[in-house]
């Protein structure tokens, strides 16, 4: 069945909830609705859903980020997940193509994706699409 990309709405929180849980970020629908509301109000945010028939099978969230050293803007993918039953069917590639369209529209110099070290399949997927590992990410919780 063909997959259609569309912009998310606040009402999609119920579809986003199981996908975030699958990605390892269990969240309540009411909290997701608040996040969606903030994202949808921002011109610097992109939130796409991949839908097959009536089922939402993937999501991508991205943010525009000023990159001070070069004076450019990058598009940072902050979330990407395709349901396990729909992986390997081009859904992730379509979602990233949607992010690339968003990035081009905003004159970004590139797209950045972070991925947990244990997600080796995701790393291979990104490399197959032309992404290269360029740095390490360090994080400290506050």
What would your notes on this structure say?
With 142 residues, the protein is of the alpha+beta class. α1 crosses α2. It is built from 4 helices and 5 strands, in the order βααβββαβα. It has a 5-stranded mixed beta sheet, with helices on both faces. The protein starts with a strand and ends in a 14-residue tail after the last helix. It has a single domain (3-128), classed as 3-Layer(aba) Sandwich (Aminopeptidase). The protein has helices at residues 13-23, 29-40, 91-105, 120-128, and strands at 3-7, 45-52, 55-67, 72-82, 110-113. β2 (45-52) and β3 form a beta hairpin. The mean pLDDT is 95.
Assign the CATH topology. Aminopeptidase
CATH architecture: 3-Layer(aba) Sandwich
- Tell me the fraction of residues in β-strands, as a range: 25-35%
Which word captures the global form?
Answer: globular
Cα separation of the termini: 44 Å
CATH superfamily: Gcn5-related N-acetyltransferase (GNAT)
For the record, the count of structural domains works out to: 1
Structural class: alpha+beta
The proportion of residues forming helix, as a percent range, comes to 25-40%
Lateral strand order in the biggest sheet: 1-2-3-4-5
Number of helices: 4
């Amino acid at each position: 069945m063909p997959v259609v990309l569309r912009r998310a709405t606040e009402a999609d929180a119920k579809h986003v909830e199981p996908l975030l849980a699958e990605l390892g970020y269990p969240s309540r629908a009411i909290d997701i609705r608040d996040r969606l509301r903030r994202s949808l109000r921002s011109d610097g945010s992109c939130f796409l859903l991949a839908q097959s028939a009536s089922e939402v099978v993937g999501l991508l969230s991205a943010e525009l980020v000023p990159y001070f050293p070069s004076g450019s803007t990058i598009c940072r993918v902050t979330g990407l997940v395709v349901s396990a039953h729909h992986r390997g069917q081009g859904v992730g590639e379509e979602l990233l193509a949607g992010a690339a369209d968003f990035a081009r529209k905003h004159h970004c110099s590139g797209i950045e994706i972070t991925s947990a070290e244990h997600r080796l399949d995701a790393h291979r997927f990104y490399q197959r699409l032309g992404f290269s590992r360029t740095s390490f990410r360090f994080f400290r919780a506050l």
